[in-house]
Every structure is written in structure tokens, then in C-alpha cells.
Design a protein that fits this description.
This protein has 18 helices and 41 strands. It is of the alpha+beta class.
Length: about 800
């Protein structure tokens, strides 16, 4: 017995067995579950649901029936899988936000666009929609093949006749083994027009098809931003579409404005979208929103974002597109089963496959009808013989012992076939009336005409084509509707810069990292020695540390104390009044813990012939080509390598042939030619710019221009203006010359600026007091002097920061009251 068992075992290589078994499984998933058929656009589960409902008589003009019964019928006869899979597929075919033309008419809770799940199938009801009945039209006329179901007790169709191009119209998505499909929905009328185009011109190209079928049409509307992705997907079967929500602005009471979200991109969950927007507003990544609410109802979608007073709606719209799912990407993968095999299908091939399917349906239907007509004609001809010889027929039947004898006698007497003889025996007596005899003659003539017509259809492909066209035209007339999704050219979009005036702004950063932009006109002109106006109101132990001027369209390159570079545009900074702190810069830049901004450089373009020069507190300097900073990452890029205990104190732009000026806290300065620093790559330690004495540190870096002055400011409110030429040129790396006398009266140097005639400066104290004065009002004195009082300070206050403003921004006659609101950009 053991020998016998051993002989029955066949050794198999486990690798070969695994490969073969996995391949069988893969093909089962691909063909039997995940991918739609190119002909009817249905996966097996959807086809079985629709066919089972047809078998139960759940048509569009009948009452709804419990979904539980439909699920049970599908499981019992056709789909040997879980009930959840069947019910989920049924529910999706009924959801108008998922399916462009729903195939199931629903009653009850079938979920929502907010992501709510449908009620259990014992509570919901369904029936076929009117357009779904077109998928089944003529299914009982021999148009498709049937195969035994899983247990052999019933049969099911291998494909549905599909009187409309369901695959393109409703789209499909699915993940198989090693492949996936993601076909977008389209407008029914446009797809049928594309079919007409191919029928008239089989050589039409993708560009020709795009004229009548411009792109997908999603059930949720919105925009497709750009046409290149559509053309690529239609030409190759794969592409990417950028989808955008439909937004508009509304004027509210009190002069405020609101941004209204009326339509969202396809397959975006509205509930999660609202949560995402609320989180971004809470974290101040989306700014300027006073209120967010959902006012959607049965009449349509309406998400309201109410703006704060003075905010620009276009800026919010740009933020929403950039940070939320109001702009998404739809990856088109036009993969479907063709003759049972998965194929990537360009749009033309997909349309041709459907037309071939419909031509086959028309031919098979004609053959079925022809065969039926011929059989009926054969029967009618027998009945006509019986009517013409009715007395003899009656006599034969009366004299016959039984049906078999009567059938045999009729066949022998009149030369009838078995079918004809049987029909005569089954003929009711009313057929003997004159009216019935006339009907029989008319039916005979009609059958002859019908046979002739069907024969001509089968013999002439042009007639088949005409029938296909006629039936598609009828479908279009009944079910076509206007396009919902608008397609826009990417080049036509208005950039955010086009919507914002390019006015000059004062950018302020506090010691604690608050940032804002304020129009320069808010800082009214004053004379030297004034007390200044109340500026930023900082939190306790905070003060204004950096002041900078740039235009709304400028790029701002941020250089931090740790030698990293970040990138923003001025309009992306929050606008605030003079007395406001602004917002935390960490909400705009992804700074590391404890990292602080040391320089902000306005840049119009990242030109090859411009250079960025940086200096550290220990006197190191680095020179980089500005083009190295054209594409900083959101998390920043490394600009300079910082040694332990050192940090970046400033950065400036140069043209490559200028002079570098470094100033120290203890009143020393050095001036040398820029060409003494060779251009380097990013993330280097650089070379020595100035040799520091014990306890000293570099506090300023400037790039000097001809006929410029050096303005030096000390922390006790004193300072001076000195001609740049008084600082003799030296070599890089020296100890330099005396810049200003520091000590009890002046304190230490907090800032050193290069200024020209006509410039103005803003001084900001640690307590937030600001003073704006013309540089011409500051006494011009020699180097190594004590200077004059620039700002009257409270006993416990000191100057924290100083910045230069050109004369064109000054308003010498301005008398704007303190605390007035800034002008809107």
C-alpha cells in the first residue's frame, strides 16, 4: 500500500507551483473582478447586479424593492463572494456624486458626498434607472452569449448589449494584481458625437476627436485645469488631469467678502475637506478667514469662507488651491478587458471597440429576428393551407383515432411538415372567421417584407452602420445633458501677482519670530530727535528685531542664523497694522526649533551675475552665486556651514565688483574689495572677513556703493553718519579701523547701514516704539566720533533695530493719525 501511495505522488518544484498558482490567481482577479469590459464598461459584479434586477423585474417603472433581496439574489445565482462586496457595488452605482449617469434608482440612505456610509441593505430599496435599462435592451434576442453560472444551475450573460457607451460615460476604477484602471466619466452627448465622427471618418485622429469630445465630464462639476493631460491620456491611454473646485466671491454685509465653494473635484470627500480647511485655518497656514461654515443643502453645495475685513479674496483662493484638496490630480489609466485580456486603450481604440460591439449586437439581433420570422412564416404558410382546405382538414381530424394519427394524415394529404401539422391541430376555431383569415394574409405579407429587410441588413454593412447610428441618436436625444465640468487652458489662469498691486511694504520680524508686512505710508515722516509713534506692540520680553523694505511681487530669500535659506513672496506674508504683532514666521517657514531669521533679501530674479554675500558673528564671509538659491525646498536648503558657537548675522546682494563693509559691536569696521572673496558653492565655512578682538562680534554686513554714507546706531539712541570714503580700504581679514566710540554714553553698536542722500531710516526700540527720520537730518561727522542723539528713549528702553527706506517711500507732508488702518494692497 505504501508503494502504491508513493507512486501516486508527483514531485513538483515549489517555485514553479507558486508561480503558476499566483498567475492563475492574478488572471482570476484581472478578468473576474477588478477590470471592466470595454464593451459594456462593467465589472462582473456590476453586470450580475443589473442582470439579477432585470430578472426580478425591478425596472424603472416598477416599485422599489429591498436591496437585501437583490443582494441575496445575486449571491444565490451569480456571485459567490461576500454580501458586502455586492452591496457596496450596488450603492456606488446609485450615488450621483460618484457616477455621471446613475444606473440604480435609490430610495433610502445611500450615503453622502461627506463620506457617510449607506444604511444597511435591510433598510434601503432600489430599482434600475431608465438609462440602465439600455444596457439590457434586446438581451433576450440572441444578442449576447450566456454561460453557466458558478453551480451550473443557471446561466448569466458574458456581456450586456449596452445601447450606450457606458465605459466612457460612467468611467471605472479598480486595482487588479500588478495593474490598475482609472477611467474618468464623460458627457453622454459628447461621447456619442465622437462615435458619429468615427463612423463618418474612421481615419480621424485624436486631435479630431478632441474637437467633439474635449475631455472628461465629472459628476461633481468643477474645472479641469489645462488640456495637455487630456490630450496625453487620449493619445496614449495614460495621463494626469489637474482638477479644481469651482470658487466664486460674494459681497457680504458690512463691506466684507466671502469665498464660496460651489463645486469640488471628483472623488473628494467634503467632510474631510472641511476638516482639512479648519485645521489649516486653526494652524494659521491659511490666513484671513473669519468664519468657515457649510451651507450645503438639497439644492447644491455651498461652503462659505468669510474673510476678515481688508483681506484679498484672491490670496485666499490661491492658498486653498495650494494647500487643500480643492485642487487635486486625477491619474487617467484607460485599461480595460479586450477579448478577455487587459489592454491600455487610447480614446480612439476605446470608441472603436464599442462601435464593433454595437455592430455585432445589431447583426446578432437581425439574425435572431430573421430566424424567428422564417419559422413563423413556415407556420403561417401551413395555416393558410389549412384555411383553404378547411373541410378536408376537419374531416381528417374527425376521422383520426388520436393526435398522432391526425398529424400523420395531414402531413400525407397536404405535404406539411411536423411543425405545420402541429400548428394546424393547435389552431383555434376563431381562425375560421373571415376577419381572422384576413389577419393571416396580412401577417404572411408582413413576414415576407420583414425577412427581405433583415436579409438586406445582414448583406449590407452600411445598413448595419445606419441602425447603430439611429439608435445612438435616440439615446442622445433622451438622455444627453449639458456638460458640468469646465475645461480651462492653464495659460489663461490669472496669477496671484496680477491681482495684487506691486506697492512697497515694510516687513517686520520680532525677536520672538512674529512677522508682518505694512504699507510704508503708515510710517509718517518725523524730524530727528522726536519720540516716534507707537509701532509693534510686542508680547512681554519681545521686541522688533528686523525691519526690511520690499515690493509685493518680490521674492524674499530668508537666511537664518543656522545658515539655511528659505523662499517666499512678499504677498504671502500676513498684512497687519503698525501696532499689530503679525503672525509667527514658523507658520510660513518650516524652521527648526530655535532657528531665527537673520536676513531677508528681496530678489526679482535669480540672475547668474548676482551674488549673495553672508557674514557670521565670528567674522567669516561667504560669497555664492544667487542662481544657487533659485529653487529652495519648503524645508529650506543649506546655504553656509556654521561652526559650533557661530551664527549668521547678515546677508547682502552684490554685482560681483563692489566693496564689502563689516562692523562690530565694539565699534570696529573693515572695508575691502569684494574680489578678495572668491565665489564658492553652498554649505562651506567661507574665509575670514575681519579679525576680532576678545569679546567683540560682527553685527553688520553692508555692500557699499559710490558716494554712500555709513550710518551707525548705538543701543542708547545715539548714532552718526559718516562718508564711506573715510573708511580706508584694507585687506580682508584685518582688525579694521575705529567706526564709532562706544562706552557709557553711546552703549554698544546695534546696527550699521549704508545710506545715500535722500534716504530715510526707521528706528525701532525694544518696546516697539518707531521713529522715521531722513538721513539728511543726521549730522555728517568724521569716523571715530561719538555721534548725536537720534532717538529719545525711556530710561529702561533701548534701540533694537534700524532699517533704511528710500526717499520715494517717504511722505513728508503726511499727517495720518496714529493707529490708522493700513491701506489695502
Amino acid at each position: 500500500m505504501q508503494e502504491m501511495n508513493r507512486e501516486q505522488v508527483t514531485p513538483v518544484n515549489i517555485e514553479d507551483e507558486m508561480a503558476g498558482s499566483y498567475l492563475d490567481y492574478s488572471m482570476s482577479v484581472i478578468v473576474g473582478r477588478a477590470l471592466p469590459d470595454v464593451r459594456d464598461g462593467l465589472k462582473p459584479v456590476h453586470r450580475r447586479i443589473i442582470y439579477a434586477m432585470h430578472g426580478e423585474g425591478l425596472l424603472s417603472n416598477r416599485q422599489h424593492s429591498k436591496c437585501a433581496g437583490v443582494v441575496g439574489e445575486v449571491l444565490k445565482k451569480f456571485h459567490p463572494h461576500g454580501d458586502a462586496a455586492v452591496y457596496d457595488a450596488l450603492v456606488r452605482m446609485a450615488q450621483p456624486w460618484n457616477v455621471r449617469y446613475p444606473l440604480i434608482g435609490s430610495q433610502g440612505n445611500f450615503g453622502s458626498i461627506d463620506g457617510d456610509a449607506a444604511a444597511h441593505y435591510r433598510y434601503t430599496e432600489c430599482r434600475l434607472s431608465r438609462i440602465a435599462e439600455l444596457l439590457l435592451s434586446d438581451i433576450d434576442r440572441g444578442t449576447v452569449d450566456f454561460v453557466p453560472n458558478f453551480d451550473g444551475r443557471d446561466v448569466e450573460p458574458t456581456v450586456l448589449p449596452s445601447a450606450f457607451p457606458n465605459l466612457l460615460v460612467n468611467g471605472s476604477s479598480g486595482i487588479a494584481v500588478g495593474m490598475a484602471t482609472n477611467i474618468p466619466p464623460h458627457n453622454l452627448g459628447e461621447v456619442i458625437e465622437a462615435l458619429f465622427l468615427l463612423m463618418e471618418n474612421p481615419a480621424a485622429r485624436t486631435a479630431d476627436i478632441l474637437r467633439v469630445l474635449p475631455g472628461p465630464d465629472f459628476p461633481t462639476g468643477g474645472y479641469i485645469y489645462g488640456r495637455a493631460g487630456i490630450a496625453e491620456a487620449y493619445e496614449t491611454g495614460r495621463g494626469k488631469l489637474t482638477l479644481r473646485a469651482r470658487l466664486r466671491t460674494e459681497q457680504l454685509k458690512g463691506g466684507r467678502e466671502a469665498v464660496i465653494v460651489a463645486e469640488i473635484p471628483y472623488q473628494v470627500n467634503k467632510g474631510r475637506l472641511l476638516e482639512e480647511m479648519a485645521a489649516l485655518i486653526r494652524d494659521k497656514k491659511i490666513t484671513g478667514v473669519a468664519d468657515l461654515r457649510d451651507e450645503s443643502d438639497r439644492d447644491g453645495m455651498r461652503i462659505v469662507l468669510e474673510l476678515k475685513r481688508g483681506e484679498t479674496p484672491e490670496v485666499l483662493i490661491n492658498q486653498l488651491y495650494k494647500l487643500t484638496q480643492l485642487q487635486t490630480t486625477f491619474g487617467v489609466i484607460m485599461l480595460a478587458l479586450v477579448d478577455g485580456r487587459p489592454r491600455y486603450l487610447p480614446i480612439k481604440r476605446m470608441l472603436e471597440a464599442y462601435l464593433d460591439h454595437r455592430r455585432g449586437i445589431v447583426v446578432r439581433r437581425a439574425r435572431f429576428d430573421l430566424d424567428k420570422a422564417r419559422k413563423r412564416l413556415h407556420t403561417v404558410e401551413g395555416l393558410r393551407i389549412a384555411v383553404d382546405h378547411i373541410d378536408a382538414v376537419i374531416a381528417i381530424i374527425r376521422e383520426s383515432a388520436d393526435n398522432d394519427a391526425a398529424r400523420a394524415s395531414l402531413r400525407d394529404r397536404f405535404g406539411l411538415t411536423a411543425v405545420q401539422a402541429e400548428a394546424i391541430l393547435d389552431m383555434p376555431l376563431r381562425r375560421l372567421t373571415g376577419l381572422e383569415r384576413d389577419k393571416l394574409e396580412k401577417e404572411h405579407a408582413e413576414l415576407l417584407r420583414q425577412i427581405e429587410e433583415l436579409t438586406s441588413v445582414l448583406a449590407d454593412p452600411k445598413k448595419v452602420e445606419a441602425i447603430v447610428r439611429k439608435e445612438l441618436a435616440e439615446v442622445k436625444e433622451k438622455f444627453a445633458d449639458p456638460r458640468r465640468t469646465e475645461i480651462t487652458d492653464a495659460g489663461e489662469a490669472i496669477t496671484i501677482e496680477d491681482l495684487i498691486a506691486d506697492e512697497r511694504m515694510v516687513i517686520t520680524v520680532s525677536h520672538e519670530g512674529y512677522i508682518k508686512r505694512t504699507p510704508t505710508s503708515v510710517y509718517r515722516h518725523q524730524r530727528r530727535g522726536g519720540k516716534g509713534a507707537v509701532g509693534m506692540k510686542p508680547k512681554e520680553e519681545d521686541w522688533a528685531e528686523h525691519v526690511f523694505v520690499g515690493t509685493m511681487h518680490n521674492y524674499i530669500v530668508f537666511i537664518t542664523d543656522r545658515g539655511k535659506a528659505y523662499w517666499l513672496k512678499v504677498f504671502e506674508l500676513p498684512q497687519a497694522g503698525r501696532a499689530s504683532r503679525g503672525r509667527q514666521i514658523v507658520n510660513l517657514l518650516e524652521l527648526e526649533a530655535g532657528e531665527k531669521v537673520r536676513a531677508m533679501i528681496p530678489v526679482e530674479t535669480f540672475a547668474e551675475d548676482r551674488y549673495l554675500i553672508m557674514a557670521t558673528r565670528r567674522g567669516q564671509v561667504v560669497k555664492n552665486a544667487l542662481s544657487l538659491y533659485a529653487h529652495p525646498r519648503k524645508t529650506g536648503i543649506k546655504a553656509i556651514k556654521i561652526e559650533e558657537g557661530d551664527e549668521v548675522i547678515g546677508a547682502r546682494l552684490s554685482n560681483g565688483n563692489q566693496e564689502v563693509f563689516l562692523a562690530t559691536r565694539k565699534g570696529m569696521a573693515v572695508r575691502f574689495k569684494e574680489d578678495q572673496i572668491r565665489p564658492m558653492g553652498r554649505f562651506v565655512t567661507g574665509v575670514r572677513g575681519i579679525r576680532l578682538r576678545k569679546g567683540d562680534a560682527v553685527i553688520a554686513l553692508e555692500i557699499l556703493r559710490p558716494n554712500s554714507y555709513i550710518l551707525t546706531v548705538c543701543d542708547k539712541g545715539y548714532g552718526k553718519r559718516t562718508e564711506g570714503s573715510e573708511y580706508r580700504l584694507t585687506n580682508r581679514g584685518g582688525v579694521g579701523v575705529i567706526n564709532i566710540r562706544t562706552g557709557e554714553r553711546n552703549g554698544e553698536v546695534i546696527g550699521c547701514l549704508e545710506v545715500l542722500e535722500g534716504h530715510e531710516v526707521i528706528l525701532i526700540s525694544e518696546k516697539g516704539t518707531t521713529l522715521r527720520i531722513a538721513t539728511g537730518e543726521i549730522r555728517l561727522v568724521a569716523r571715530a566720533t561719538l555721534g548725536v542723539r537720534l532717538m529719545q528713549l525711556e530710561p529702561d528702553d533701548s534701540v533694537a533695530s534700524v532699517a533704511c527706506i528710500e526717499e520715494e517711500e517717504a511722505e513728508p507732508n503726511g499727517d495720518e493719525p496714529e493707529g490708522s488702518a493700513p491701506a489695502a494692497p
